[in-house]
Amino acid sequence: MFETILDEEERGQVGIGTLIVFIAMVLVAAIAAGVLINTAGFLQTQAEATGEESTAQVSDRLQVVSQSGNVTDEGGVRVVDELNITVAQAPGADNIDLSETTIELIGTQGQETFQLDGSESSIDIYTGDPADVVLTDASDRADVGIDLNAGGSGVYGYLEGGDRLSLTFTTPSGATTTAELRVPTTLTNEQTSVRL
Predict the structure, then answer these.
(1) H-helix or E-strand spanning residue 146
(2) Distance between CA atoms of residues 177 and 196, nearest Å
(3) d(C-alpha 91, C-alpha 137), whole Å
(4) Contact 65/87 with Cβ under 8 angstroms?
(5) CA distance 171 to 193
């Protein structure tokens, strides 16, 4: 049943073969573990980045505090020629750079999209340096002025009594806020501004 190995050299060769196989298995296991650790680290980094971007897209948005319009006489008809929208950070939002925020106007006269740092709009921030148009705190407020007849070319066109307009603000992170504006059906000569 048991064989007796009388030759001492044969006994050593069997042990070395087993040792080589064992070392090869350890090396293969170490390489596989390294690949798995690198892959897990890459996936973790990618998941964190995706989570941060998704959170920013949901929470880094603007909140519309008030909305009004400047009333003027245009060819004997009372119209709204400028919009004044006061905005703030939504709860839980990080810093929002208004100069990189875009706005989309949709109404009966069509659709217009532009960035808030252009000639069609102005930004007046109430706190801090007026040249700095970044909302950094929940108490910060900024007045966004939109000239509907920018330089006579008309970024959108005048709003008359009864008109409706949808505004959509899109922050640099991709979060959107929509506000619906409704012009009162009657604009009187005494009015210089109107709540929308």
Answers:
(1) strand 142-147
(2) 16
(3) 10
(4) yes
(5) 27
Q: What is the mean pLDDT of the chain?
A: 83
Residue corresponding to tokens 């532009």: 114
Helix (H) / strand (E) element for 42: namely helix 8-59
Distance in angstroms (rounded) separating the CA atoms of residues 88 and 57: 16
What global pTM score does this model have? 0.70
Q: Of the candidates 91, 75, 74, 72, which has an alpha carbon nearest to the alpha carbon of residue 83?
A: 72
Q: Report residue 70 as tokens.
A: 């400047």
Q: Is 192 left (phi over 0), alpha (psi -120 to 50) or beta?
A: alpha
Quote the pLDDT of residue 68: 92
61, 83, 176 from 195: Cα distances, Å = 23, 10, 22
- For the record, the structure tokens of 110 come out as 């069509």
Paired with 144 in beta bridges are: 85, 123
Which fold, 62-195?
Immunoglobulin-like (2.60.40)
| AA letter at 139 | S
Per-residue model confidence (pLDDT) at position 31: 92
